[in-house]
Write a structure and sequence with these properties.
By secondary structure, the protein is α+β, with helices and mostly antiparallel strands. It is 48% helix and 15% strand. The chain has helices spanning 6-19, 30-38, 45-57; strands at 27-29, 61-64, 67-70.
Length: 75
């Protein structure tokens, strides 16, 4: 198994929002996103952290406390 790139991990996180029909400005619980991410056997906990950082740095998601908000650029 090859290690996914930060962008691939971030896009996997975004796909969780799409699967749950989350719209711009809406939130999911961070634990819910993390659990869904780890259910994919191609990704590890380290990949979630790297992907989350990538998504936040690119303005796709906003991580605040125990929630994750989908931003316009991430939709």
């Amino acid at each position: 198994m090859s290690t996914p790139t930060p962008e691939e991990s971030a896009r996997k996180i975004l796909s969780i929002f799409a699967e749950k029909n989350v719209r711009v400005g809406e939130i999911l619980m961070a634990g819910q996103v993390n659990l869904a991410f780890l259910n994919d056997t191609n990704f590890r906990a380290e990949d979630y952290t790297v992907g989350a950082n990538y998504a936040q740095q690119h303005g796709w998601l906003e991580f605040k406390g125990t929630t994750v908000k989908l931003l316009k650029t991430g939709a």
